[in-house]
Amino acid sequence: MRFLFVRLSSMGDVVLTTPLIRALHQRFPEAKLHFMTRAPYGDLVRYHPYLEAIHEWPPSAEVRLWHWTGVIDLQKSLRTLTLRWRLRYERFSTFPKKNLQKWLMVRFKRVIPLSHIVERYGMALRPWGILPETLGPLEVYIPESIRAKLRHEMAALQTTHPWIAVGLGGTYRTKRWLIPYYEILLSRLKLPVVLLGGNSEASEAHELATRLSVPVIVGAGRFSLLETAAAIQLSDYLITHDTGTAHLGAAMQTPTAVIWGNTVPEFGMTPWKVRHVNIELEYLRCRPCSKLGFDRCPQGHHDCIRALTPDYVEEQLRHAFHISRLA
After folding, report:
1. Which H or E run includes 56?
2. Can you give the CATH number for the domain in which 92 is found?
3. So what's the pLDDT on residue 327?
4. How high is the pLDDT of residue 148?
5. What Cα–Cα distance (Å) separates residue 32 from each residue in 7, 28, 132, 246?
6. Do both 110 and 187 map to the same domain?
7. Tag placement on the chain: N or C end, fewer CB within 10 Å?
8. How far is 94 from 83, CA to CA, in rounded Å?
9. Do 157 and 113 belong together in one domain?
10. Cα torsion for 6, 220, 167, 169, to the nearest 10°?
11. Who's near 87: CB < 8 A, 6+ residues apart?
12. How many distinct structural domains can be found in the chain?
């Protein structure tokens, strides 16, 4: 038996598919499991012990020639739809995206709670007798050399206090908390910080680091995906937005606080099977304004982020994770 998982992007979505790998292996221990994704995300599944091979999109001639017991399309786009006639297989399965329900929530501002995306992904395994409700936690495997490198960098700052990892990233501005707010919050918490993000967050991270009096490591624009995962795993808490970093936190089993802006937890994208807290303003009548986000607030006020004050976020964090006050 040979199965092919397909999820092309992005970071968080690839991580969210990982419970299916273990579930299919447990159902068919002898099966050969393969995973297809885009090159930037390959490392997220490269070291998974149950995967025989990682393939980069687009499918190679070898992938097209193999006979697959099942092709499991967890992207469900027009691009991956072409695999239906490009590959040879016994069964092709996919999952419900629920885009209509999301559109209705955005259009009419009425909450229609959706099942978690992991459970919806899991519906693609039903043809092989696996139920979505049996799926386990997210998993990302990190080589010990990477973990040792991050452990050494953090130990060099010689602090005995718990670490906080902060994910500054987010494709859309309406999902991202304000840098001045982070400065106030982190200064009050008085805990060592790892600032995470991509190249687009690097300048903000460096600027924020200069304003903090606590020990700071700037990983934004410097850490690879697996180094970012290792930093989260070695931290005691994670603060992030509704982005892929939240799902890395779940995979690392690090208590995670998600700051929600224009999107809502009811979309089914909360951290999976990990201790977490959703920090949001539920009373705002303009939320959700998009299932993804915008570069600027459609109404011009950005209250979903601006009204999440450092006072409120600090209170939620301390209550959820029992973070004590330092002198």
Report:
1. strand 53-56
2. 3.40.50.2000
3. 47
4. 98
5. 17, 9, 21, 30
6. no
7. C
8. 12
9. no
10. -70
11. 4, 59, 63, 64, 66, 68, 71
12. 2
The Cα-based distances of 87 to 4, 61, 77, 201, 299 in angstroms read 10, 10, 16, 39, 46
Distance separating alpha carbons of residues 47 and 254, to the nearest angstrom: 20
Which distant-in-sequence residues (6+ apart) come within 8 Å of 327 by Cβ? none
Contact residues for 104 (Cβ-Cβ < 8 A; gap 6+): 110, 112
Give the whole-angstrom CA distance, residue 231 versus residue 245: 11
CB contact set of 300 (below 8 Å; sequence gap of 6+): none
Which residue, chain included where needed, has tokens 């180094």?
Answer: 227
pTM of the model: 0.97
With a cut of 70, list the residues of the chain below it in pLDDT: 326-327
**Does 326 fall in a domain?**
no
As a whole number of angstroms, the distance between CA 167 and CA 78 comes to 31
Do 197 and 301 sit in the same domain of this protein?
A: yes
- Cα distance between residue 122 and residue 17, in whole Å: 8
Q: What are the CB-based long-range contacts (under 8 Å, 24+) for 29-34?
A: 30/1, 31/1, 31/2, 31/3, 31/69, 32/1, 32/2, 32/3, 33/3, 33/5, 34/2, 34/3, 34/4, 34/5, 34/63
Domain, as residue range, for 35: 2-134
Secondary structure percentages of the chain, helix, strand, coil, to 5 = 40, 15, 45
Number of other residues whose CB lies within 10 A of the CB of residue 31:
16
Instruction: Judge if 108 and 157 occupy the same domain.
Output: no
Q: In what order do the strands lie in the sheet with 237-241?
A: 216-218, 193-196, 164-167, 237-241, 256-259, 276-279
Helix, strand, or coil (residue 256):
strand
180 half-sphere exposure, CB direction, 13 A CA radius = 4
DSSP symbols for 159-193 = --SPPEEEE---SSGGG---HHHHHHHHHHHT--E
